[in-house]
């Protein structure tokens, strides 16, 4: 708007109105697209998708400001030339902080925005315009260095924070996610499954007679068993979105997004068989152990939350233990938590 008011007396009115209208429509469109940014967790593919959109929008914005440096540059009008240069340079300088958190966003905006006005100033017959034109590249070279420093500092800060969160979210003995990470992942995957209208499955597994194993062989061997089980579970999950967590002493959970009951049961039965052969794989460093599993699967609904999925899987695990251990029990598409609890009374 400032540019429009400042150049109104000298610029071609139709061209100025057209340019301003395009800028308004472009920014409105960018705002509408931004409103569609998904809330909550987004996966790696979605991250790249939105990153590409950011770079495209930034490039278009820079291109539109570069067009202004061509359309509204009027030789022999130094006061308007310097006003135009001041607006464009100021706009580019203002984006230094906001665009420096992405590796390429600032130069992608800067180069198309500042190049036309800089070249026009350098080729102008006015010495003051020439001087400004030759100063601008040095000024933005310094801003670019500042941008790289902001990016480096922000990147190091984010990595440090991620590392700290990683330490806080993983079980130190087994290396898999801990209870806190499990609960956060459950909330995240529940929201995503609700959004995508896809199934979500949860597996809860418990090492059978683990206390007896500890009492007989000692806690050091018990720790080896836990590590071996965790390694097996991690090895058997197939996708990056699946999560293995240790949620209790000898209790593990597996979150399986976009997986129905049949798919979850196929995976869990293969894991159950694998656990029975762990001692062979470890050359008798650990005793033979078995695991019981409870599996629950349902499409999330706004009328319930992650608690129902957990309670269903836990109830199914209880049934597996009650029926003799070393087995898999399941619950699918449960309408309400109360009906599940009543069915096991």
> What's the helix count?
13
How many separate structural domains? 2
Structural class: alpha+beta
The Rg value, from CA coordinates, equals 31 Å
String of helices and strands: HHHHHHHEHHEEHHEHEH
Walk me through what this model shows.
This protein is of the alpha+beta class and 345 residues long. The chain has two domains: 2-167, no CATH class; 179-343, Alpha-Beta Plaits, CATH 3.30.70. The protein has 13 helices and five strands. It has a five-stranded mixed sheet with strand order 2-3-1-4-5, with helices on both faces.
Question: Top keywords for this entry?
Answer:
single chain; 345 residues; alpha+beta; Alpha-Beta Plaits; 2 domains; 5-stranded mixed beta sheet; 9% strand; elongated; disordered C terminus
Spell out the blueprint of helices and strands:
Blueprint: H1 2-7, H2 13-35, H3 44-71, H4 78-99, H5 105-123, H6 127-169, H7 179-196, E1 200-207, H8 210-217, H9 219-236, E2 243-246, E3 251-257, H10 261-276, H11 278-281, E4 291-298, H12 306-322, E5 328-332, H13 337-343
Parallel strand pairs: 4-5
Antiparallel strand pairs: 1-3, 1-4, 2-3
Helix pairs in contact: 2-3, 3-5, 4-5, 4-6, 5-6, 8-9, 9-10
